[in-house]
Amino acid sequence: MRQIITQVDAFTNTPFAGNPAAVCVLPTPQDERWMQNVAQEMNLSETAFLVRQDDGFNLRWFTPTVEVPLCGHATLASAHVLWSDGHSPDEVARFYTKSGVLIAKLQGEWIELDFPVNHSQETLAPRELREALGVPYKSVLQNSLGYLVELESEDLVRQMQPNFQLLKTLPVSNVIVTSLTHSDANYDFVSRFFAPALGINEDPVTGAAHCCLAAFWRDRLHKDEFLAYQASSRGGVVKVRYTGGDRVFLAGQAVTIMRGELFTA
Length: 265
Fold this sequence. Notes:
By secondary structure, the chain is of the alpha+beta class. Helix content is about 20%, strand content about 40%. The protein has an 18-stranded mixed β-sheet that branches. It is globular.
């Protein structure tokens, strides 16, 4: 088969920044092994596969090694491709996923995603976590994604160099680190996201992490809307809106970087 595949930088309006994702809008469903092989070939943090379904699209996400139940930046990239390539005339896109129905809305130059919120609870962190991160922390919480670790300062978040081999030995697959910002008054908080057990040492910009960070920072800052910066080497910007309840709204921008043709048996 010959399949169009598009690479998009998500949560940025600048090429070669944000988080890159590959997007395949398939004419018919493909088997899981084929999708995993394509994701491995693309070797990006996520490759998204869409197939038209009812009033929307079935959507699945694969890292180079595993399928994941939720991915924010590849959902943003998918919505961007649907609209920029003319797959959908509507300004609302509906995705059927393993995390339920997700909604994306086109709002000018931004795309807003309606995602499930992910609450965190205080936890007793293993001793290996401090050693793996290499920095002191204020608090550690746990959610269904992994650990959420609050650090003392933005400088620590930006400058830390974790031990990825040690992170792989933790009882969870993912670690979010976060703090308030002080270097740029436009941003409320900063974060980074590590997932070496999933084949991603550091994810450039992570929508699923902001599903956790929304409730965390709302409890501490007593506000509902945030502008967040993920301080990876590529960097990315996420608008966060959470007023309570079980849904959080994440908004970002996206740019198409390349479009090609995939030749497979």
